[in-house]
Specification:
The chain is mainly α. Helices cover 60% and strands 10% of the residues. The longest helix has 34 residues.
Length: 140
């Protein structure tokens, strides 16, 4: 922890640390924008949501600052769901492309089936979202 630093000092310090390790910067977002954007993960602690959009990866309500570890854990679980969504979409598209390249898929069928890739990802995320909330509640 470093206090009483100028915005450029913070940005330089975080950039130097980032050369050797992954750095998470937590700040208020006002004078920390450079350091937040230079960090591997930047989290802004805010009083009012929607008052500004700082250069950060996540925003945490100041009242919930004590829950920072749970916030990070939840973000990691969400990121895994995003990776799974990409995998499902890629698999769906590779299978569809395989049939299309072989001429086994008529253009009208492809036009109907192609949006199903998006639907399947949205359906997957919708079905997984309650599990994210449930695992969050079970840890509290």
């Amino acid at each position: 922890m470093h206090f009483c630093q100028s915005p450029s000092d913070k940005a330089t310090y975080v950039e130097a640390l980032n050369e050797h390790q992954k750095v998470m910067m937590v700040g208020d977002g006002l004078n920390d924008a450079g350091a937040l954007s230079n960090s591997y993960c930047g989290i802004t602690v805010i009083e009012k949501s929607g008052s500004f959009s700082p250069a950060c990866d996540g925003m945490l309500d100041a009242k919930s600052f004590g829950q920072l570890p749970q916030f990070i854990s939840f973000a990691k679980r969400c990121l895994h769901r995003v990776y799974w969504s990409f995998a499902i979409s890629m698999l769906y598209n590779v299978v569809g492309l395989t049939f299309a390249v072989q001429g086994l898929l008529k253009p009208i069928v492809a036009a109907i089936v192609m949006p199903m890739s998006s639907v399947s990802v949205v359906l997957f995320v919708t079905l997984v979202a309650p599990q994210l909330r449930a695992s969050k509640k079970s840890k509290q």
